[in-house]
Amino acid sequence: MDLGIKEKIVIVMASSKGLGKATALEFAKEGATVIISSRNQQSLDETAAEIKEASGNQQVFPHVCDISKEEDIQKLVQFAADQFGRIDVLINNTGGPKAGGFDAVEDADWYKAFDQNLLSYIRTSRAVLPYMKEQQFGRIINISSSSTKEVIDGLILSNTLRAGMIGFAKTLAREVAGDNILVNTVGPGRFATDRVAELDQIAADKQGVSAEEISKKSQSSIPAGRYGEPEEFAKIIVFLASAANSYMTGQSLVVEGGSLKAL
């Protein structure tokens, strides 16, 4: 199937590793021009080289951007617009906030989580929308968490801010649908990423067992019997940005191997 992504201009935030990197790779495989971003130039350069080699697509451009800084976001979007004349797809992504329950987080943690996990998505969306409206086409896809459907114990910051993201995305989707701009959110369950390894280690330290034991127990609780691979998640993102999706907007999906019991 031709997904209609070839030569589309795609920005993938926080894409030097994990789900962001996997998403950038899948877009590159489909022939898109991909701008990848993170805070570290060396890491970005290495990731760009890996994606080019794995995809055979040389149209991969690293650009440093700290998603918590509005000026960095503006420079990133301006770079894409100046270089390619348009922006077709924005993939919002950032690292998860500090783990912990209510008593483990302070005001500074709440402010940081708001800035990183909600306001940053608002800022990137605001920056690309003028270009998308002018061309009467755009796709904004927010990478979130399965906590948008079922809260996760010990992740109060994520549970709270991800819910706010869903409210933002749903409202924005309704406002821009008439401009042929679709906005959707996809939350991962447990995938084989550094973030999940970090959470497994935190649980292991708390329980006094090995991270391997926690991982094995966690995977056994998933009906699919394993953690997902990042590329499996990335393919869903690419579908939502593709010509195969021309009508679905304002939705919050989860990709989790059947682990959630919530309807």
TrEMBL record:
One Pfam family per UniProt: adh_short_C2
CDD domains, per the entry: BKR_like_SDR_like (cd05344)
Cross-referenced Gene3D superfamilies: NAD(P)-binding Rossmann-like Domain
Family as reported in the entry's similarity comment: Belongs to the short-chain dehydrogenases/reductases (SDR) family.
Record PANTHER family: 3-OXOACYL-(ACYL-CARRIER-PROTEIN) REDUCTASE (PTHR42879), NADPH-DEPENDENT REDUCTASE BACG (PTHR42879:SF6)
Protein name: SDR family oxidoreductase
Organism: Planococcus notacanthi
